[in-house]
Amino acid sequence: MELWINAAVCHPLPWDLGNTDVPGSELLNKGAARRMPAQMRKGISCALQALANAGTVKPDGIFMGTGLGQVDDTIGFLNEIEENAGGILSPSGFMRSTHNTVGGTIALLLTADGPNITYSHGLASLHWALLNATLHAEEHPTHNLLVGAADEHAPLLDALANVAGLTGRTTLTSGAAFAVVSAVRNATSLGKITGLWTALRANGKQWWTNEELSAPIDLVLFGSDPFTGALPVLPPHARSLDYRSFTGTHGSAPGQALCMALHKLNTGWSTDGMGTAVTSVLVVDQHGEETSAMLIER
Question: SS3 of 205, please?
Fold first, then answer.
């Protein structure tokens, strides 16, 4: 089925990296914001702005993807375990260290009591969240669903990248992206997802059928896990771009790539070196041996 994207917000903006303003920051309660880590605050602000853009007060479901979750809080909680040597631990430290922290906090802020599911599977995480949202929309076509991804950067990741010999080959960053989706098109719709391929073990081979990609693809945005070095197999004859040159590398970068695709479809965005207007964009991600993709059309 088609999944309509009725709003999409991300930070940083891949097409305006100099813009440090976080969308939706004024929508977040100041008291709650002060208690949140910076990247968590940015992610939730993006979610609130996406909901406002779509005219949705409370989502009927929340589906999240993340590569490493709130990694700084996870590191902090592990350090606390070591320092306390079996003593009493802070419950807030544990709660903030879990991968579903952002999705759960959004639900608490909005008193949203629908399904709330977080996937953590590297670059495939957002793809799984979108698949879950699609299945939900099939059963509940009137529901408005919040789908998002958020990851933060920590110095430990740079140290691990250095050990793995990746220094200078990739830039580890952070980012967040949220979209409001439904089975029904409305006045705010920016585009639609017409195809999803999730975690296929392509092993360097064609992962699609010719029938699935029967229409020409105007542009392919692709990314991959730098720790494996494998690149996805791309459809022939399509212009392609490694979106990591705009987003950097983190587990939620596919969400920024989705926003890039929608921006390209709706504005042309000719300053990116990708030509003029397009009508279809394929976002492809390689995570280890698994390939995931989404086809976005206007």
Answer: coil
- For the record, the structure tokens of 19 come out as 């813009």
Do the beta carbons of residue 113 and residue 143 sit within 8 Å? no
Is the domain spanning 3-182 CATH 3.40.47.10? The answer is yes
pTM of the model: 0.92
Nearest in space to 263 (alpha carbons), one of 248, 247, 249, 250: 247
Helix/strand number for the chain, H first, E second: 9, 10
Strands 145-151 and 175-182: antiparallel
| 219 vs 237: CA distance, rounded Å | 10
Do the two domains 3-182 and 191-297 of this chain adopt the same fold?
A: yes
**pLDDT, tens digit (0-9, with 9 covering 90-100), for 99-148:** 788 999 999 999 999 999 999 999 999 999 999 999 999 999 999 999 99
Listed in sequence order, the residues at least 6 apart from 37 whose beta carbon sits closer than 8 Å to its beta carbon are 70, 72, 73, 96, 152
CATH number of 191-297: 3.40.47.10
